[in-house]
Amino acid sequence: MPTPLTAASTYANMARIASEAQRALLPPPGTATPKSETSFASVLKDAIASVNEIGHKSDVQTRAAASGKSNMVDVVTAVAETEVAIDAVVAVRDKVIAAYDEIMKMPI
């Protein structure tokens, strides 16, 4: 059963993943930004922002439960939702890395 410590650890890991992804998506200094807002980078930023928001809601629920103001079912649901969202982000990251590896193996 998830504990507040597990939720806090999961939230910290999710925040670390989100900050690393945002840092990787920033264009290098001196380059022009793409004009299309429907780019892969913007979709990825939005997805990471929503995962961050889900993690924040889970954190709020956990703190409310620790102070006795929330139902444990709500906390477990929020933590499970956060875990699923983080697993999805990790799966996408793994697929992107696998695709990059495949591209690098292609002969020129």
List the defining traits of the structure above:
single chain; 108 residues; mainly alpha; 77% helix
Molecular structure report:
This protein is 77% helix and 0% strand. It is elongated and about 60 Å long. The N and C termini lie far apart (51 Å). The protein is built from three helices and no strands. With 108 residues, the chain is mostly helical. Helix 1 packs antiparallel against helix 2, helix 1 runs parallel beside helix 3 and helix 2 runs antiparallel to helix 3. The protein has one domain.
At a glance:
This protein has helices at residues 4-25, 40-66, 72-105. The chain is an all-alpha fold. It is elongated.
Strand coverage percent: under 5%
Structurally, the number of domains stands at: 1
Q: Oligomeric state of the chains? A: single chain
Structural class: mainly alpha
Query: On the 0-100 scale, what is the average pLDDT?
Result: 80
- Globular, elongated, flat, extended or rod-shaped: what is the shape? elongated
If helices are DSSP runs of H or I spanning 4 or more residues, what is the number of helices?
3
How are helices and strands ordered from N to C?
Answer: HHH
Largest sheet: none
Number of DSSP strand runs: 0
> Low-confidence runs (pLDDT<50, min 5 residues)?
none
N-C termini distance = 51 Å
Rg (C-alpha, Å): 17 Å
Q: What is the helix fraction of residues, given as a range?
A: over 70%
List strands and helices in order, with pairings.
Blueprint: H1 4-25, H2 40-66, H3 72-105
Helix pairs in contact: 1-2, 1-3, 2-3
